[in-house]
Every structure is written in C-alpha cells, then in structure tokens.
Amino acid sequence: MITEELIRLTERHSAHNYHPLPVVLATGEGAWVTDVEGKRYLDCLAGYSSLNFGHRHPAIIAAARDQLDRLTLTSRAFHHDRFAEFVTALAGLCGKDMVLPMNTGAEAVETAIKVARKWGYEVKGVAKDQANIIVMENNFHGRTTTIVGFSSDPDAYGGFGPFTPGFRVVKYGSADAIREAIDENTVAVLLEPIQGEAGVYVPPDGYLTAVREICSANRVLFIADEIQSGLGRTGRTFACDHEGVVPDLYLLGKALGGGVIPVSAVAADAEVLGVLKPGQHGSTFGGNPVACAVAIAVIGLLKTGEYQARARELGAFLHERLRELAETRTRHGRPAITAVRGRGLWAGIDIDPELGTGRRICEALMRRGVLAKDTHGSTIRLAPPLVVSKDDLAWAIEQLDHVLQEL
Ligand SMILES: *Cc1c(COP(=O)(O)O)cnc(C)c1O
C-alpha cells in the first residue's frame, strides 16, 4: 500500500518532531482533502487556521499564479510593485499606521519582542537591558529559543535552555495577576486573545478590556498574538474585536498566507514600529512579491465581511450542537464530553480521559472521513475552514457523535 510505504520513508528520513495521523494527503479543494488512495476527508483542522479560506481558494490561487508569472523575489534591498499595496491594505485592515512583514508566526512574535524592548528603552526610558515583558501561563507563541523559554509546556522548553531573560509569566485570564507583575521596567504584555494551542481557552468577559486599561495606565504596550485567533476565525476580523479592544501591536500569520505560503506581520502605530531604523531588523523573504500578492487577496476576502459572518453563523451552529453532545450520555452512563470551549468556528472539546485519549478519537474520526487534531492528551480541536458548508459541518459533528458513542 502506498500510504504505508510513504509513512515508512517519512519515519526513516524525517525528524520525529511530529506524530501525524496515518493519512497521506494528495489534493485539496475548499474544506475537503483527498489522500493518496483516493479517500476524501473533511479538513476540520485547517492547518491550525492557516486555511481559513479553504484549500486553494480561487481568488488566492489566481493572485499567486499571476504573481508567479511576473516577479517572485527581490529582497528588501529594492522596492517591488506589490509592497506598497500590501502594507497599505494590511495597515488599513488593522487600523494602524504601519506594518512590518515577516514569514512565520514565531518571527512576528520575535519582531514584537524586539520592537517592544527598543520602544521601552528609547521612548519609555527604561534603563539599559532592564526591560521585562509579561506573558501568560499556557501560552503558545512559536518555537524559537526565546519563545519556548517562557512556555509552561515541558515538551516545548525541556532540554532547550539556557533561555532569554526578561519575561514574567502570569496566570491567563487574571487582570490582577498583570497588575501585580507590572513595574516601571515593564514594556509589554504579550497574550493570545484566545489561547489556541492550550485548548481553545477563551478568557473571562472583560479581561481584554482590563488588560487594555492596565497597559494604557502604566505606559505598557499591549501585544495581541492574533496569529491563530485573527482573520475571521472567531467571527470577527480580530478576536480582540469581541470586546472592542484595540491592542498596540497585532501579530498576524497563519491565514494571512492564504494557505499558500508563510506570511506574517506586526501591525502598530508609527510611535512603536518607528523605533526600527535601517539595518536593525529584517528578513530576506519577508514581504516578497508572492507573499504580498497572496496577502492582498486574503485582505480583499476579509474586507467583504462574508467570512467573518460565516464564522459567526456556522460557529453558533457548531457550539449549539456540541453543547447537545456534551449532554448526551454514552453507553457508560455519562457524557463523553466534559467541557466545550471556543468562539466562532473554533472549538476545544475535552473528552473524559477515562473513556479515551484525544489521539484515539482523532484516529476514529479519520476512519470516518473527518480530520481533527488532539492537544494535551484529551482535548480535540475543531477549526474547519470558514468556507465549510453547514451540511458538511453537521455531518462532521455526526461523525464525532458516532465516535463518542463507540468509545
Ligand atoms: C501558530 C502560532 C504561532 C507560531 O506560528 P509559526 O508560523 O508556526 O511560527 C504563534 N502564535 C500563535 C498564537 C500561534 O497559533
């Protein structure tokens, strides 16, 4: 069988830093993918929200194709003719003066850390090398050494020290914890408006508003990592929009690349991003013509509001159905689901660990044609592309129901 052979070669010749489900995908369109044996699956992970617009969205592919035929890379040593349009469009979407394009999410986070520190020294007046940044327990911001150094997940940081100093970890969801940790050397609070990798944890109502107030009152930058929560997933352009909160820096990635190439960015006002002068930060591939063309198409799709509306409507349906499932007793006499969290078309579902692991459930879902991913043992994440049809979504939830009944 071709699947087994490809997996065997993968295991022999690629590092084992992932444990993929045993499926080998070959093609994709919209919310659906097909494996090398011709079996179809509904993609309920969507590349951790990199595929918010589905696989090969026609407008995004057309933009990429067109750009491939014209100019693909210049480096930032020269201007290219798609750059101005991209930065203007993204700054407009974010309501900020400026953007700084990078490639991966982790690079956007690293960029924000550097910018916040430099802003602290040059604008706020923090003493040399004394800046601290407040971060959250159970955060996920990427895989660089600096970033994993303030992770609370032993898998993420174990064995990779020594780490970059200057971070204070506090409890997520507690404004008081931030108030207690802040001092005159604090330059930023960095958080995910919804913690995705942790298991789709939505903070208490009013938390983001309180963080905004605390940051403003203490002259501290509010950095919102919207790499996974942003660009339509939660039913609004940004997860911060649900509280009408505007952070000082937006960090974007994942869906910004339209499911085609890595595109990330930091968006902020000139007082903040203006601290960077030529030579002080950069990226060979950041803001390349193909990245710009793809991101311009993505921003165009978001401007219609259609995808945010789909995420709201389909998300309401998803959460209503999941609540019903969470009340349904299985043959063990109790519900298999112990908690459901999330917002928009994004859900974290905790399964009673006595009934089965998240991995086992995802494997069973796979056999039924639904691709999803477990996290932290017994949580399953659902985040289908925003283009998924209501019927397909209903069908996927039915498959979950069957799998839970069979536990
Ligand atoms: C995925 C993710 C990142 C890291 O993005 P990469 O492109 O994998 O480097 C950072 N922050 C959040 C919230 C993410 O979900």
UniProtKB/TrEMBL annotation:
EC number: 2.6.1.13
Xref: InterPro entries: Aminotrans_3, Aminotrans_3_PPA_site, Class-III_PLP-dep_AT, Orn_aminotrans, PyrdxlP-dep_Trfase, PyrdxlP-dep_Trfase_major, PyrdxlP-dep_Trfase_small
Cofactor: pyridoxal 5'-phosphate
Enzyme class: transferase
GO MF annotation terms: identical protein binding; ornithine aminotransferase activity; pyridoxal phosphate binding
An annotated GO BP: L-proline biosynthetic process
Signal peptide: none
Keyword set, alphabetical order: Amino-acid biosynthesis, Aminotransferase, Proline biosynthesis, Pyridoxal phosphate, Transferase
Ranges annotated as spanning the membrane: none
Biological pathway: Amino-acid biosynthesis; L-proline biosynthesis; L-glutamate 5-semialdehyde from L-ornithine: step 1/1
Family affiliation: Belongs to the class-III pyridoxal-phosphate-dependent aminotransferase family.
Protein name: ornithine aminotransferase
Species for this entry: Thermobispora bispora (strain ATCC 19993 / DSM 43833 / CBS 139.67 / JCM 10125 / KCTC 9307 / NBRC 14880 / R51)
Upper lineage: Bacteria, Bacillati, Actinomycetota, Actinomycetes, Streptosporangiales
